[in-house]
Structure formats: C-alpha cells, structure tokens
User: Which sequence fits this backbone?
C-alpha cells in the first residue's frame, strides 16, 4: 500500500517548526501545573504500596507487572520519598501525553486551533488530571497508549513498516507497566483487519513488533507461573468481592464524566469523524480500535470506567480537526472561539474535583454546590470525600498511633515486636513513616506483602492494626487493646481501628502464613 503521505496532500505536507509550538507549550504548562500542585492532601494509599514494591524489586507482583516497582526503587534511591519526588515522573508522563495528543492532531492535519483544542481537552480531562497526580501504573499507561497511537499514525502516513518494531517495543514496555496494553494491541489488530490493511499484517516488521512485545512480557509471565498465578486469584476476588459491576449504559455514561462533560462533543464527534469521514479513511483503525476496546471492556463486565481513559487521544485529535474545519471563515472563527472558551471554563470547574486543590471543607462545599456526592467505584461505605481523596488521609497519623503503642511496651518486648497491617495501605504507611518513630518494618498478608512473607517475625509480640479480638484470640495466648486509631477524612473502613497487642502465637508463623493470604 502506498504511503498516505503521497495521497493526503496537506496532511503530509512538511510543516514549519512553529507549528510544533502549541503541542510543546501545552506540554510545558501541563508539567508546570502538576509540579506546582504535587502536595495535595498527602500520600495516596497505592503510592505507599508502590514505594514498598521499590524495596522488593522483582520480575512481578501479585497484582501488576514490575515497572512501577523499578521506578519506585529508582525514585527512592535518586530523589527520595517526598511527595514532589514520587510525583515527578507521573507529572512528566502527563506532560508527554498532552504533548503527544496535540502533536498527533498536527500529524493528522490539524492546525494551531485544532492542536490547542485537543491538547486542552486532554490537559483538562478530569480522569487524566487525577491519574497524573499520583505515582501509579495508570499515569504511564496513558502515556504508552498515546505513544502507540502516535506510532500508528506515523506508520500510516509514511508507509514505513519498520515502525511496527518501534510500536512493539513501546507496547512491550507498556506491558511491563500494565497488562491493559493487551487490549490496545487487540483493538489495533482488529482495526487493521476491519480496515483491510493487509500490507501491515503481512509485514515481517509487524510480526517482529509482536515478538518484541511478547519478549518484554515473558519475565513477568515466568514470575506469575513460579508463584502459582496469583494474578488470576486477585482478579477473581476483585470481581466478586470489590468492584461494582456496571451496566453498559452506566459504563458509557461514566466516560462523559471522566473525560469532562464539556469535552464530550469533541471526542464523540472525533470518533464519528475517524470512522466515517472520507479524508480519515486511512486512519479509521484509530476509531475502530476504540470501539473494539470499549466493547471488550463492557463484555468483560469487570472493567472500571477509568480503564478506557488511555484510549482518548486520537478521538480528541479527530474531533478537534472536525471543529477546526467546521463552517466558513467567519462562522468558523465564532465556533472556534466559543469552543476554546467553553472548554477552558468547563476544565477549570472540574479541576478541583479531579485533584486536591481545595481544603477538605471547601471541597465538600464546592462539590455540594455542584450537586455531587462522594463516589468510589468499589463496594465501600463513603465518608464526605470521594475515595480518591479519602485515600490521601490518615497514613502518617496511623504510624504515629502505632508507635505510641509500641513505645509503651516493655523494652524487652519491643525487641521482638512485629507490626501487622490488614492491607497494603496500612503496611505501607508503617514502612514509609514508621522509621522516624523507631518502628520495625510491617508485615501483611495482602497482595505482594504476602509474597514477601513474615520476615523475622516469630509471633511473640504482634501489634495488629484492625481485625477483631475474637479471631485473634484463636491465634494468640493473650490479646489486649493498645489504643484505637481515628481519622476524620480517611475511608470509613480505616477509621476507629483498634491497635491490638497480641502475644504468644499458638503455632509457628510459617504454618499460619498460608492461611492468611488475601489477594484482592
């Protein structure tokens, strides 16, 4: 198949460097915004877990591939564990994703307005703002998907099949971050078939790219096999016990909220434009891949709405180009001006809902004024804050409370005391904040903490965070209440937690440990 550049005229025409200014500017502004707002309410629950992953670097973890653990280890060793340090890389991922979104708009033929519209829609998308605010796999997942889409556009424009190898390398690295890249690859593959792009599918470079991606994944698969495939148990438990199943309509409607109600016309029109516009025929794979991934998530019945967040960059690009070309010169200017103004106002309204920019009290008043109620997406009771914000509260205070109980113990007890957290948030809080109080490292049976085992703990004295006394009394000789931990704005299930002093484990801890496993 001849390169699209030979057939699309203005789309493939060389553009001056100044036409790259808008994507670079939007990327720089996005980076500055996230770096200036790294503090928020505090450490997010999952960030504590990923920092613990960085102390146990391996080819895999119970619930995710190894890349985030490697990055956490790098961050800890080079930058430290401050909020600014651990959120630097997600901010960079956000800046790069916004830049790539605006730049792929340029690659598809969009001028400055279209680049600005697509880039602003990406920068203001509430779900993207949230994901780029914390250290997690999801921030990098958006970047890897967007980079893969950009490579597909370059392959179609230039006809350079060798770029499929680059696609495979980027996708492979993305798989080391999060397995959701498999859905992207599936969507692209089906899109190539639907678009009858047989030259791509017959190219040896395409299959070399597939092999390259697979090679990246092999060490993680080997780790999973060596540990009895814990990922499957984790996924089953999450589906049955934690995640809320959504109807297809609810899943789709959540996309409007996650990407921002004001930007919905952009990506919805962009989807139709990529699928139906004659001038976008060579790039139809971008639209069809979105539909394939959307339907796959809906059919699976277990996907959270934000799983689709990385798929929107091409749709924003297509919609921005459509609106740029809409109407005559006079009408077009009016539409373009109104679109930018509306997007900016809508984006500013949703920013405090996506990232902790307001105090807790101000946020509660602000969300109430908009008629919003706290949400979670999981089967948990809610407090006055949504789960994303609530999980940024209480962790240093938890470590301090446990330390008070620890230092009230006789000195000879302290030397043989362990701290047990019911979940990786509690254990991660002890691991990160505990050293300043002289606490030992925590143990837990939750996800990868269970894999790491009980360490040197013998069960002689264990400070247990949460749990019930009756259960503990079946395991230990004596169980006493040390104190009760309280927190105002944390998740309700973390509030009013007893800190138990359990002594004299009835059996060797190595025998008990397999019974405690909790993958969810």
Assistant:
């Amino acid at each position: 198949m001849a390169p699209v550049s030979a057939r699309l005229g203005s789309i493939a025409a060389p553009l001056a460097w100044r036409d790259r200014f808008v994507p670079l500017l939007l990327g720089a502004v996005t980076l500055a915004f996230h770096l200036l707002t790294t503090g928020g309410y505090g450490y997010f629950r999952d960030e504590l877990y990923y920092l613990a992953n960085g102390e146990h670097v391996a080819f895999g973890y119970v619930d995710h591939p190894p890349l985030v653990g490697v990055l956490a280890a790098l961050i800890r060793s080079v930058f430290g564990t401050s909020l600014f340090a651990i959120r630097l890389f997600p901010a960079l991922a956000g800046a790069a994703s916004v830049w790539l979104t605006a730049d792929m708009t340029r690659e598809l033929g969009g001028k400055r307005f279209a680049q600005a519209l697509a880039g602003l829609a990406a920068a203001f998308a509430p779900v993207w703002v949230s994901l780029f605010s914390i250290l997690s796999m999801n921030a990098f997942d958006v970047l890897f998907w967007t980079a893969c889409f950009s490579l597909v556009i370059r392959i179609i424009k230039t006809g350079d099949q060798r770029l499929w190898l680059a696609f495979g390398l980027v996708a492979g690295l993305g798989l080391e971050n999060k397995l959701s890249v498999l859905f992207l690859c599936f969507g692209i593959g089906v899109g190539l078939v639907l678009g009858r792009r047989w030259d791509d599918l017959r190219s040896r470079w395409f299959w070399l790219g597939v092999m390259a991606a697979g090679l990246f994944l092999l060490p993680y698969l080997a780790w999973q096999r060596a540990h009895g495939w814990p990922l499957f148990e984790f996924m089953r438990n999450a589906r049955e016990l934690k995640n809320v199943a959504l109807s297809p309509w609810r899943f789709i409607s959540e996309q409007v909220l996650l990407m921002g109600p004001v930007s919905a016309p952009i990506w919805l029109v962009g989807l139709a434009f990529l699928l139906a516009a004659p001038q976008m025929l060579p790039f139809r794979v971008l639209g069809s891949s979105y539909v394939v991934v959307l339907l796959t998530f809906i059919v699976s019945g277990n996907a959270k709405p934000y799983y689709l967040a990385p798929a929107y960059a091409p749709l924003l690009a297509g919609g921005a180009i459509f609106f740029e070309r809409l109407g005559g010169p006079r009408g077009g200017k009016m539409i373009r001006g109104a679109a930018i103004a509306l997007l900016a106002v809508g984006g500013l309204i949703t920013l405090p809902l996506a990232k902790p920019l307001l105090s807790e009290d101000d946020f509660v008043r602000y969300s109430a004024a908009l008629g919003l109620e706290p949400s979670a997406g999981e089967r948990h009771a809610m407090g006055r804050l949504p789960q994303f914000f609530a999980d940024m509260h209480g962790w240093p205070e938890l470590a301090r409370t446990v330390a008070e109980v620890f230092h009230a113990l006789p000195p000879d007890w302290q030397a043989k005391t362990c701290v047990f957290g019911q979940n990786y948030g509690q254990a991660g809080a002890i691991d990160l904040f505990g050293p300043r109080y002289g606490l030992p490292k925590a143990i837990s049976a939750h996800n990868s903490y269970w894999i790491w085992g009980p360490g040197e703990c013998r069960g002689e004295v264990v400070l247990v965070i949460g749990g019930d006394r009756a259960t503990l009394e079946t395991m230990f000789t004596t169980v006493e209440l040390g104190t009760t931990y309280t927190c105002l704005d944390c998740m309700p299930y973390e509030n009013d937690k007893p800190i138990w002093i359990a002594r004299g484990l009835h059996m060797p801890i190595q025998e008990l440990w397999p019974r405690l496993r909790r993958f969810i």
Notes: Confidence is low (pLDDT under 50) at residues 5-15.
